[in-house]
C-alpha cells in the first residue's frame, strides 16, 4: 500500500533511510508493529505475523490468519488489531478477545479468551495475572482505565484512570491527552504517573518503586500543528460525516511515547511541531531512576500523528519504513 513519508526530510534522515544499516524485508504489505528477539524480527500485519532473519532480511516463516479458531485472529476496528510480545520464552499475540501463545518458530501452543467488553491490549505479568485496559463510565463521564486481571481474565483491581478522549458526539474527540501507555518489562511494570511528564515504575507485586520524571514541556500547540491534523481528518469526515471533530488542548503533553528494554526506559517527549522527524530520547535506569543518556534520533511518520513501526533493542532503535518504491526497509539507529 502506497503511503507517504512526512516531508521536511533533512539530509541526515535521508542518509539514515537509504544508507545506514537498512535491510529490505520482502512481502510486507502494511505492517504496524515490530518485535526483535535475538536475531529475528517479527513484523505484525493485520491478521498475521511475519518472521525475518537478521542481518540478511531473509523471510523465515509466518503464522496466524483471520478466523475464530485456535491459532486464528479476529479482526477489529482497532487500527492496530494485533500486538506481539515475549513472555516466558514464548511469543504472545494479543488479538480481539484472546491471547494466543506460540513458540518462537511460529508453532501454536495454547490460548486464553476474554471478553472484549471487559479488556483490551492484554499483557501477561506471570501465569496468573495480566494487565489490560478498558473504558468505563462513572456518573456520565467516560474514563480509560488500566486494570489488573486474574487467572480467569476477570478484573481484580483498577490501577490507573484518566478521562477518555471521547465523551459524546457533541463534544468532539480530544487530541494530545496525557500519555496512556503501560508495559511489562523483565523486572518491572510501567504505568502513567500522576503528571504528564511522569512514569511510575512498579515491582511485579505492584509495589511502587519510583517515579521517573523528565523535564516538563510547555510547548503550545500552534497553528501549523493544528492545520496538519485538520488536513488529515478532512477526507475522513468527508467519507464519514459523523466522525467527531478534533478538539485541541493549549499545550502538548510532555511524553509522546516510551519503550522498555533490559530495565532501561527510553522516553520520547513531544517535539515542538507534531510530525517533525527529530525526537529527543531520554534513557533511564529503571533500577535507580538515574538518567543515563539523552540523544536526538530520527523517527519517520506516515501521517502527521502516526509513526512507522518502532522498537528498541540493546541500545538500538529499529524502525520499519516504506520507501517511495513501496518496499519496506528495517533501519536502525544507535541510541546509546
Characterise this structure:
Strand 22 and strand 23 form a beta hairpin. The chain has one domain (11-31, 114-334). It is globular, with a radius of gyration of 20 Å. It has helices spanning 11-18, 223-239; strands at residues 23-25, 33-37, 40-44, 49-53, 59-63, 83-87, 90-95, 98-102, 108-113, 120-124, 130-138, 141-149, 155-163, 173-174, 183-184, 188-192, 198-203, 208-213, 246-247, 255-261, 264-269, 278-285, 291-298, 310-313, 316-322, 328-334. The chain contains two helices and 26 strands. The protein has a four-stranded antiparallel β-sheet, covered by helices on one side. Strands 2-3-4-5 form a four-stranded antiparallel β-sheet, with no helix packed on it. The protein has a four-stranded antiparallel β-sheet with strand order 6-7-8-9, with no helix packed on it. The protein starts with 10 loop residues before the first helix and ends with a strand. The protein is mainly beta.
Which helices and strands appear, and what pairs or packs with what?
Layout: H1 11-18, E1 23-25, E2 33-37, E3 40-44, E4 49-53, E5 59-63, E6 83-87, E7 90-95, E8 98-102, E9 108-113, E10 120-124, E11 130-138, E12 141-149, E13 155-163, E14 173-174, E15 183-184, E16 188-192, E17 198-203, E18 208-213, H2 223-239, E19 246-247, E20 255-261, E21 264-269, E22 278-285, E23 291-298, E24 310-313, E25 316-322, E26 328-334
Parallel strand pairs: 14-19
Antiparallel strand pairs: 1-26, 2-3, 3-4, 4-5, 6-7, 7-8, 8-9, 10-11, 11-12, 12-13, 15-16, 16-17, 17-18, 20-21, 21-22, 22-23, 24-25, 25-26
Amino acid at each position: 500500500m502506497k503511503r507517504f513519508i512526512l516531508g521536511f526530510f533533512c539530509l541526515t534522515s535521508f542518509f539514515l533511510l537509504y544508507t545506514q544499516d537498512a535491510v529490505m524485508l520482502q512481502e510486507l504489505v502494511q505492517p504496524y508493529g515490530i518485535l526483535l528477539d535475538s536475531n529475528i524480527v517479527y513484523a505484525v500485519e493485520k491478521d498475521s505475523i511475519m518472521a525475518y532473519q537478521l542481518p540478511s532480511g531473509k523471510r523465515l516463516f509466518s503464522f496466524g490468519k483471520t478466523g475464530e479458531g485456535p491459532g486464528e485472529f479476529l479482526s477489529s476496528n482497532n487500527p492496530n488489531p494485533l500486538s506481539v510480545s515475549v513472555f516466558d520464552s514464548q511469543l504472545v499475540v494479543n488479538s480481539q478477545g484472546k491471547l494466543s501463545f506460540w513458540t518462537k518458530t511460529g508453532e501454536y501452543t495454547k490460548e486464553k479468551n476474554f471478553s472484549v467488553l471487559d479488556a483490551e491490549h492484554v499483557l501477561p505479568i506471570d501465569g496468573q495475572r495480566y494487565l489490560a485496559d478498558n473504558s468505563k463510565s462513572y456518573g456520565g463521564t467516560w474514563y480509560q482505565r488500566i486494570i489488573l486481571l486474574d487467572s480467569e481474565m476477570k478484573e481484580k483491581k483498577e490501577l490507573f484512570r484518566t478521562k477518555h478522549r471521547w465523551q459524546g458526539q457533541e463534544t468532539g474527540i480530544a487530541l494530545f491527552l496525557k500519555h496512556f501507555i503501560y508495559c511489562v518489562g523483565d523486572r518491572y511494570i510501567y504505568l502513567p504517573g500522576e503528571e504528564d511528564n511522569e512514569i511510575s515504575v512498579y515491582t511485579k507485586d505492584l509495589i511502587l518503586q519510583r517515579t521517573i520524571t523528565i523535564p516538563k514541556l510547555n510547548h503550545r500547540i500552534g497553528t501549523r500543528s493544528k492545520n496538519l491534523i485538520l488536513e488529515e481528518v478532512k477526507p475522513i469526515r468527508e467519507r464519514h460525516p459523523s466522525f467527531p471533530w478534533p478538539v485541541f488542548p493549549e499545550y502538548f503533553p510532555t511524553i509522546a511515547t516510551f519503550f522498555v528494554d533490559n530495565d532501561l526506559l527510553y522516553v520520547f517527549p513531544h517535539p515542538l511541531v507534531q510530525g517533525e522527524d527529530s525526537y529527543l530520547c531520554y534513557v533511564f535506569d529503571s533500577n535507580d531512576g538515574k538518567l543515563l543518556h539523552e540523544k536526538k534520533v530520527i523517527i519517520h511518520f506516515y501521517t502527521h500523528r502516526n509513526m512507522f513501526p518502532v522498537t528498541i533493542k540493546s541500545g538500538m532503535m529499529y524502525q520499519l519504513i516504506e520507501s517511495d518504491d513501496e518496499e519496506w526497509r528495517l533501519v536502525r539507529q544507535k541510541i546509546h
